[in-house]
Automatic annotation (TrEMBL):
Domain SLBB intervals: 196-270, 297-382
Topology of the protein relative to the lipid bilayer: Multi-pass membrane protein
Annotated keywords: Cell outer membrane, Ion transport, Lipoprotein, Membrane, Palmitate, Polysaccharide transport, Porin, Signal, Sugar transport, Transmembrane, Transmembrane beta strand, Transport
Taxonomic source organism: Methylorubrum podarium
Subcellular location field: Cell outer membrane
Name the record gives this protein: Polysaccharide biosynthesis/export family protein
Domain Polysaccharide export protein N-terminal: 99-188
Length: 419
């Protein structure tokens, strides 16, 4: 104990170390409470926000119903099939692969040549030596906005949507009663219609006329200088009249049937559509993987597996993670879950909140994770091991008891020094 003189009275006051420790602890608590009002922070604490509200609306307690599915070969096959089917691909525009024949469009300039079997007809004079050949070149005709041209002695002809051969036969038929066995050759001198436009995320946005031999999508993209983004992030949109379809560029490369023939007037739009996944829980802290400072990661290819995604985010934290509790959150189709044997009768919507789980403690867990295809905006959550929570509690207890031990030790030192 500590003996102290009590001023003028000359009496000794007795201070027990335990009393001094309690006094010091109370002083620390007062100081801590004062510090809460003076330490800097970004904004008000949660209790201040809630207590200052005039009206508080709390949602009714309602949990989200979800399905928990352990990865197995059956589940893996069903979900991967659904993932592959969700990849954008052309459907209605896929044909037999034949080139679309270029049709005459408004603005095109047509060259018309009329042949007659002998002189003395409509176009060839009787004096055969006055000119060479048995044909006459009609001045070029431009298709007007109404889709028509005016051919000499044949009148006004609507040619839009026709082929040059069809126009030639139509003119010859109209001249049959006036010319001598006429034959007419029509060619497109200048193509100002039938344009194909390629724009968006390409190096050289361009517009060109459809070749008579046809043009496929990849050829049109090549003419525009190619995409500026990787193929697995490049989405190709083809607009044809009132219809629009989309396909991933890697689908066109891997499946030649997807490299469709373009039609006159098509618009090809290239856009970058990166896919990402999120990693939460007991993985390495942000910034420890190649300088990455977040938990949002882009795909490196069009079909990234769960094992690749975990590796990209740095792998499991061996000091905290529970390898038997790796979860993947996504919205899954009812039909896919039904194929796995899941009872989906309680779910009304077509998409069901689903959590897939895999046990990486098992040897086959690695094989399953390396065959599980990730989807855009999937969430990987790695649970912490139970021992981690125990260690946290023990650390908190150790810190708390250490504080009082230090206070008691300090009080004892003071008492010893005062003796």
């Amino acid at each position: 104990m500590v003996l102290g003189r009590n001023g003028a009275q000359g009496r000794l006051s007795v201070f027990y170390p335990s009393v001094l420790a309690r006094s010091l602890a109370a002083a620390c608590l007062v100081a801590a409470g004062t510090a809460c009002t003076v330490t800097p922070r970004d904004g008000p604490i949660a209790s201040a926000v809630r207590s200052s509200a005039d009206v508080t609306i709390e949602p009714a307690p309602e949990s989200v119903s979800y399905a928990l599915v352990s990865l197995s070969p059956t589940a893996l096959s069903a979900t991967n099939r659904s993932t592959s089917a969700a990849t954008p691909a052309f459907t209605r525009f896929v044909s037999g692969g034949r080139a679309s024949q270029a049709r005459i469009a408004p603005g095109d300039v047509l060259a018309i040549t009329v042949f007659e079997a002998s002189t003395g007809g409509l176009f060839l004079p009787n004096e055969s030596g006055s000119r060479n050949g048995n044909f006459v070149q009609v001045p070029n005709q431009q298709v007007d906005g109404g889709g028509t041209i005016n051919a000499p002695y044949a009148g006004t002809i609507r040619v839009v949507g026709m082929t040059p051969d069809e126009v030639g036969r139509e003119i010859a038929q109209r001249l049959a009663k006036r010319a001598i066995e006429p034959q007419v050759v029509v060619t497109i001198a200048e193509r100002r219609g039938n344009d194909i436009s390629v724009l968006g995320d390409v190096n050289l946005p361009t517009r060109f006329s459809l070749d008579p031999g046809g043009m496929r999508v990849l050829g049109a993209v090549a003419r525009a200088g190619g995409p500026r983004s990787p193929a697995y992030e490049t989405l190709i949109t083809v607009q044809r009249g009132a219809r629009t379809e989309q396909a991933l560029m890697t689908s066109l490369v891997k499946n030649p049937a997807q490299n469709i023939q373009l039609a006159a007037g098509d618009v090809v739009y290239i856009s970058r559509e990166p896919k990402i996944f999120l990693t939460l829980g007991a993985t390495l802290p942000p910034g420890s993987v190649g300088g990455i400072n977040n938990r949002r990661f882009p795909f490196d290819n069009d079909n990234m597996t769960l094992a690749e995604a975990i590796a990209k985010s740095g792998g499991l934290d061996d000091a905290r993670a529970d390898p038997s509790a790796v979860f993947i959150y996504r919205m899954e189709a009812r039909r896919t879950l039904s194929e796995m044997g899941v009872d989906v009768s309680k779910y009304a919507s077509e998409l069901v909140p689903t959590i897939y789980t895999v046990d990486l403690n098992r040897a086959d867990g690695m094989f399953l994770s390396n065959a599980f295809f990730m989807r855009n905006r999937d969430i990987i959550y790695v649970s912490t091991a139970p021992s981690t929570e125990i260690n946290k509690f023990l650390g908190l207890t150790r810190n708390t008891t250490g504080l009082f031990y230090d206070l008691s030790l300090g009080a004892g030192s003071i008492a010893a020094a005062a003796r």
